[in-house]
Design goal:
about 160 residues; alpha+beta; five-stranded antiparallel β-sheet; two-stranded antiparallel ribbon; 4 helices
Length: about 160
Amino acid sequence: MDRVVDLMPAVGLNPGTELPGLEVGPFTLTDFVRWAAYQENWLRIHYDRAYATQRVHGADCIQSGHHRTALLTRMITDWLGTRGRLVRLAVRHTAPVFPGDSIRCRGRIRSSTLGGGEMVVELDISAVTTDARLVSEGTAVVGIASPAPGERRREQR
């Protein structure tokens, strides 16, 4: 059965609104090796425990920052679905992630404005380990198609 819905209230683009988070982990060395191979990142710190232990003051291998960036991107695009697009992403990695760690990716709407036929939404994003270490933070901008005033869209039920 079809029903007609007004998209704008359903979107919930108010500043302060939390995005559904993404929890991933616990990570294994295999996860790190797989990701390093996928991106052709042959830095030994991502897969060679003996090397990493010598280079990181006794710590284990570390996760590639690009892996966390991909997980933050996934959180955003899972939230957007097919209704929008990722326009800009800036991420800074603040601490390492080790085998055995789990992270929670989080996002919050900073602002939303109508422009150029779409809602332009600015997000604050972060990744935190289960022991509350901030490991990545950044911002993103997404565009969400906006219906014309009074326009409605059919939704499958």
